[in-house]
Amino acid sequence: MTCARRWTVAVLLAALAPTVVAGQSVVPQAQRRDTATKIEVYGFAQADAIYDFKVNNPDWFDVNRPSRLKAFDREFGDDHHTWFSVRQTRFGVKATVPTPKGPDVKVVFDFDMFGVGVDAGQTTIRLRHAYGQWGKLGAGQLESPFMDLDVFPNIVEYWGPNGMLFFRNVQVFWQPINRADGTRATIALERPGASGDLGRFSERVELQNLIARFPAPDISAEYRSGHHWGYIEAAAMVRWIRWDDVLPDTFDLAGGVTGWGVSLSSNYKATKKDVLRLQVIGGAGVENYFNDAPVDVGPRLNLGNPRRPLVGEALGDFGMSAYLDHTWNKWFSTAIGYARVDIDNSNLQSAEAFKNGQYSSVNLLYYPAPNILLGGEFQWGSRENFDDFSTNDFRLQFAFKYSFSQTFGGR
Questions:
Q1: pLDDT confidence of residue 206
Q2: What's the pLDDT score for residue 2?
Q3: Per-residue pLDDT at 110 exceeds 90
Q4: Which of 110, 178, 272, 333 is surrounded by the fewest CB atoms within 10 Å?
Q5: What is the rounded CA–CA span in Å between residue 266 and residue 256?
Q6: What is the pLDDT of residue 175?
Q7: Can you say whether the dihedral through the CA atoms of 155, 159, 165, 166 is positive or negative?
Q8: What is the CA radius of gyration of the chain?
Q9: How far apart are CA 39 and CA 247, in angstroms?
Q10: Confidence check: pLDDT of 157 > 60
Q11: How many C-beta atoms surround the C-beta of residue 78 within 10 A?
């Protein structure tokens, strides 16, 4: 064998050596499947300082919710309030667990300190996410497919634009399409629930003996088409709301409605520094899926039937949100936009019933370091009632946010 041939054989053996050991094929490290569980701990501490030029419900002191503005003069006292809050502070854990065959198991659990419901106004633990996903199938509490989280703008106010959909719900979902370009399709069976307005006759004992019933889960679906310029998404919802009359008298006030809704949303990358976040919604009886809207069902006169003189009506709803996120440079950004909600009131709702609300804000945010955000935001909200009473609110909010994230395990 010549010297040149010996060198050629040596080079070939050296090239093959990493993939052949003791007669077995060895996959290069970069191509090996990661079989170790990976856990990410994340969150942030945030403090907000707020000056409210007007007044809103003190249980919702640190958010701008038009539905929580006063429904009549001096309902919440006089104007001018100063508030401080740490309720946006968040803590969470994500885990990726490999399986012997098939896709990884992904688990998310996190909470913030923003009390709602019976804890409204309190600084207390509030569950945000608690769900798992294995391939196309998932279950737990997370964002409804009917909503589009990506239309939420880069703002510091916690609740956000009232005219967008925003509802985390307990659900079982199937995601047959989920591509790298952002295209996806999801179908879900969600926990049912709704709220009603007894209107002008709320004190009548006949109405106090109505019991809500939900015979089937809410059904939601979405399809998103991803593109280099962003995406466009269509979503829909259908639900069944019933109520039973358990009072044995001459009236039969039992009934039910079918709620439905459709949504069209998009993120459009107008330039390298500008993203438009857009959503429009229409439907009836799906108010509790809105970010800020009133009850799903209202009372309506039914004078042609003496045994059932009033019935429930799924209240028509319309919502829209349009925001521009602009990045000035690596240190500064601005979000500016407008949103609104309009409700078709039923004829027996009270004079103070919510009819429409508007929301707008503009901010300037500063990022002095990757894990720090400081900024100020001016917010406006307005409310109009069924009886045409209206009110406005103006707020200034300053935020101080410090984030963290650490990953353990994995390769």
A1: 52
A2: 53
A3: yes
A4: 272
A5: 34
A6: 98
A7: positive
A8: 27
A9: 54
A10: yes
A11: 8
CA separation for the pair 56, 397 (Å, rounded): 15
Structural tokens at position 60: 């919702």
pLDDT at residue 107, rounded to an integer: 98
DSSP-derived letter for residue 63 is: S
Q: What is the mean pLDDT of residues 96-110?
A: 94
What is the pTM (predicted TM-score) of this model?
A: 0.88
pLDDT-derived band at 18 (thresholds 50, 70, 90) equals: very low
Greatest extent of the chain over all pairs of C-alpha atoms, in Å = 111
Taking alpha carbons only, the member of 65, 67, 63 closest to residue 83 is: 63
Instruction: Count Cβ atoms below 10 Å from residue 298 Cβ, excluding itself.
Output: 27
Amino acid identity at 89: T
Q: How far apart are CA 285 and CA 290, in angstroms?
A: 11
Beta pairing partners, 316: 284, 344
For residues 390 and 70, the answer to whether their CB atoms sit within 8 Å is no
- What's the rounded Cα separation, in Å, for the pair 67 and 251? 33
pLDDT for 217 beyond 80: yes
Q: CA-CA distance, 92 to 43, in Å (whole number)?
A: 6
* Residue 31 pLDDT class (50, 70, 90 cuts): low
CA 253 to chain centre: 34
Q: What is the DSSP letter of 104?
A: P
Architecture of domain 42-409: Beta Barrel (2.40)
Using alpha carbons, select from 346, 99, 330, 91 the residue that is nearest to residue 200.
Answer: 346
Domain ranges within the chain, ordered by starting residue: 42-409
Number of helices and strands in the chain (H, E): 2, 22
CB atoms within 10 A of CB 188: 24
Burial 312-331 (b: 16+ CB within 10 A, else e): bbbbbbbbbbbbbbebeeee
Q: Which residues contact 378 (CB under 8 A, 6 or more apart)?
A: 361, 362, 363, 394, 395, 396
Encode 372-390: b = buried (16+ Cβ within 10 Å), e = exposed: ebebebebbbbbbbbeeee
